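User: My advisor, Dr. K., asked me to get a structural model of this assembly before our group meeting. I'm new to this, so sorry if the format is off. These are the inputs:
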Amino acid sequence: MDFREKPWNKNLQMLLALTIAFNLLPHLFNVPIWVSLYGFCAVAWKVLYLTRGLSLPRKLPLSIGALTATAAVLVHIPLPFNQRTAAAMLVIIATSKLLESNRYRDAMLAIIGSYFLLLIQLLNAPTLGTTIFMIVDLLWLTVLMLQMHWDDERVSIRRILPPLKTVLWALPLWLLLFVAFPRFTVGGLKARQNTAETGFTDKLNPGAVGRLVDSPETVFRAQFQDIEKFPPESFYWRGASLAFSNGISWARGVDGNSTRGEVIRPGGFMLRPFSYEIWMEPGYQKWLFTIEYTGKLTATEHEFPGVIYKINGMAFEASSPSYNRFVYRGVANWSAPKMEMSTDELRPYLQLPRGIDDNVVQLAQELKSDGDEKFSSMAEPELRYNHRLLDWFVEKKFRYSKNPEALASPSGVGQLSEFLFQKRRGFCEHYAATYATLMRLMGVPARVVVGFQGGVSNDVGKYLIVRKMDAHAWAEIWVKDGEDPNVGRWIRVDPTTRIAPLRLQMGGDFYRVDPRELAEGLTKDELQKLMDTAASRVFRRVRYTWDLMQMQWNMFLLRYNLSFQSDLLKQLGYEGSAIALLGAVVGVGFLGFLGFVTFIFWRRSKREDKLVLAWRKFCARFEKAGLRRNPNEGPLQFATRAAELKPEKSAEIHSIAFRFAQARYGANPTPAELRRLKSDLRRFSA
Amino acid sequence: MKSSRIYILPTRFGLLYLGGSIAVILVGAAYANNLANMLAFFMLSLSAVCFIQTYANMRDIDVEAVETQGGFADSEFIVEVVLANKSKDARFNLELRLRGKKSKNVYYGSHRVSGGARHRIKASYPAEKRGRYRLNEVRIQSIFPLGMFRAWKWFSIETQYFVYPKPVGEAHVPLTGGAGENEGNAPIRQPGEDFSGHRKYETGDSLHHVDWKARARGRPLMIKEFDEGQSGSLVLEWSMLEGLDTEKRLSQLSQWVEDSRVRGVKFGMRIPGAKVGSGQGLQHAIKCWETLASYDASRRSA
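Assistant: The format is fine. Below is the predicted structure of the whole assembly, which you can bring to the meeting.
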């Protein structure tokens, strides 16, 4: 029986158990909770078995347990088969194997399982942190693999060096592969990579934005010249606009369609446009967020899959959902462009929900006439009504609240009345929705926009980070420019400006403020100071530096793909198929590397053989005198026979033979001794 | 021993690993995930380096001597190999393999053989039928360092091992009293051919060897001596086991050899086609056993 069938020593088993536990860690939250529990219980059991002698479960109960768990996974997680399922099953398999026995075969399967667990983690969260985890994990696994085959009872720290040496030898080859391996894509495999809920849907229901605001997760990063100099209130990021009103809920309606209307007039953008770049995190499907007011979006093949579509509502969309990071560029203008919209195109924006309460209609009429009266100095009626309505919100002491009481009414229009006349407490989506509906009642085309507002500036990297907690909803009204009702601009109106101006001044950080401090009516700077301790400043700097490194690493990984490699080759003058050339480079490089290293090993052992060759030549010199060395004859025996033949050279023969025997069978000679021996062997003449 | 070529192939784990790395590349291509590609490249590079290291670990390994130790049928025999590492660097995890045989319970590898050093590997193998077997080649293999590849070398040797007949039958050699008694089932013990004289009886001499007839005639107690190693020794004779088939006879003789050896008695053996002179001790017993093992029924002689 060889070492592969012996149960190995406890230390090695413990190392294997710990390796598997390490690989389980990142999946703790990816898999159903009971799978994590199963995994950790299995590992804990194994550890107890190793340390306290707790006996392992028998084969039958263990198999039943594992099969039940697997079946439960397949039932619980809906098809199609994706990362979560695969990860859960791997966890069950790997930990069950660990418990099953101490045999080599099972350990090797557990190791392969660990590699696949690692792979799944790389797909789930391709970040810099995961990269570091991968490096540590691969080193650990290599150490474990070496320990297992070293076949010796000791498991010591010094054993880390040889596997590191092996890894170092592998690095040049790895580099060759990384640079030259053609990044082909396998078409048709559009599996979901990320099952994160983005929170952005085609509808805006009360509470939709409120739910997003709890998460500090990054949605995208944006950069343009001097971005860090702008205050948060400058930044409005448009996701999509909603045209269909249900009172308080809104839906996309026509604003889900590709744009046919909304022609921007020549000279529509007055101020000088600026260009910016956005780096989207994975998981946001087709949404392309743009800064207000963006006229054009572009992207390169390297960095963006698919095509960009312009849609109604001055928004943009990707042709297909992407589960990877991507980059796109935009050209924007701070002021709203002058546009042309026909009466037909404007009609949807006057749509009213059916069954609006009479008191709401009445309110609208009152506000309209009131507005005409109070703001008669304003030329545009739209602006008059706008101001009156916003003032009314403030007069009636409407409050801004992230988690207002749920609206009891079952219908959208009912909820609308409830909000306007009873509750009077809501979040940005409530205000945007009711504002737009009321404006429509007053005869002004209006719509709701969802996206983000604000963001936090990474002063280390000089870009803006926009997070889920910056999510926001606001409204737009169509204001005529001059006499022609079909020429005008969509002007943004954000009711939150009047109701909770701090929200705009602080961006999403507004939600981090203690409500009590908010109630005290402190200014933005005072609140900022309260949140901004020395420790948090240091922490912030560390976090931003890390964010920058992450971002650069992610961009590098993103950009290094086949079109990049092709471009590189084109620059070097090669116009043909990148895949063919790179494939050839990889093949040749691989073989070349193998040949090179084999050559090195060959050379080293050749030196040793030179001594034996010299000895053989020495012995051959006696053949003329009739003495032949037997192949298995030892040097000293031969020397005795040779000395008998040539007694005058007896001392020399014995000395040479003795030293040769020492060199071959005894202690390693010094290089000087070796040289002397070789030269003596060569120079000897029988 | 003549050194042979090094052969190398992936192990089952190695195939799994390589297959796995290809799977990872495909996954990386499907999801356009460069980190998965990096993982695959690492796995491939590691395999390549492992290939070289496993190959290099077999270089300059030589088998200098092979010794065998026979055993009984249904028991085990031992093969001991002297491995020499003729290079300057250490070699690790060398295993001994015989063609078509699986070793029993003796561990048969070596952890580490330093540069220029020698190491004995001893392995036991199950012995089946009795006989004389040639051992033509041994294999030295290793899966060091990572278990992905197996490298091996064949060494042709010319040696043999014996599987002795399993000792079966009456445990002890039956001895009869008195010289000259010859019954139907002839006693194993037989007086020698040539009477060479008397010597004085000394305390401790077996009473069976006393010349009683002489004593009866009034002579003092004397021990009869016979020459040519037959004096006072047993001769295990084939012909004594009339009625048993060949294998049973061999097994019985084998048992009696063991019995004689244990008792420290001098004994010899005579079977058709072979004869072993008198001797005692383990080496002598082994010689007898080897003779028994080599018994070839087709060469029956009178």
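One thing worth pointing out at the meeting: The mean pLDDT of chain B is 78.

User: Perfect, thanks a lot.
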